[in-house]
Design goal:
Distance between the termini: 39 Å
Radius of gyration: 16 Å
Largest sheet: 8 strands, antiparallel
Number of helices: 2
Strand content: 35-45%
Order of helices and strands: HEEEEEHEEEEE
CATH class: Mainly Beta
Number of domains: 1
Shape: globular
CATH architecture: Distorted Sandwich
Number of strands: 10
CATH topology: Deoxyuridine 5'-Triphosphate Nucleotidohydrolase, Chain A
Structural class: mainly beta
């Protein structure tokens, strides 16, 4: 059954399977159907209009074989012009930090970024059945076990 996971189910997966953990030891911020993600590091502390940079999450992920995650922005930052989640899918089997693509879409205002700030959220869904080939090098994937800001495997970063 395809369904968005509830707070209770997210909490269970985090407690039993370590689906999401914070590297700083702080408790997870689990919402009714999502988990907040926080900025660990960022290439810039301020994004001027039109600026783009990469960041990464304090949270690290260990996705079960029948759960997929979707990274979305927080409405407060979206209203200020901050766009994240350009590549917002977390595949079943993925392990590692999430690299965030951050862009200031505002015409005039600079957006200030701080380590530890709640930058987005992830909601989770079940697949219709456990996937037969998990995310990883055997499937041609490039970012398994990434830590910190991870640039494109194509060398464009």
């Amino acid at each position: 059954m395809v369904a968005i996971l509830s707070r209770q189910t997210i909490e269970k997966y985090c407690r039993l399977d370590k689906m999401v953990e914070r590297r700083d030891g702080e408790p997870l911020k689990i919402e009714p159907v999502s988990i907040d993600i926080h900025l660990a590091d960022c290439e810039y502390t301020s994004l001027r209009p039109g600026d783009f940079c990469l960041g990464n999450t304090i949270e690290t992920f260990n996705m079960p074989g029948q759960v997929v995650g979707f990274v979305v922005g927080k409405s407060t930052y979206a209203r200020e012009g901050l766009m994240i989640e350009v590549a917002g899918l977390i595949d079943p089997g993925f392990r590692g930090d999430i690299t965030l693509e951050l862009k200031n879409l505002h015409d005039e205002n600079t957006i200030h970024l701080e380590k530890g700030q709640s930058i987005g959220q992830v909601y989770f869904m079940y697949t219709d059945r456990p996937v037969d080939i998990l995310y990883g090098p055997d499937n041609g994937n490039h970012y398994q076990d990434q830590q910190g800001i991870t640039y494109s495997y194509r060398g464009l970063g």
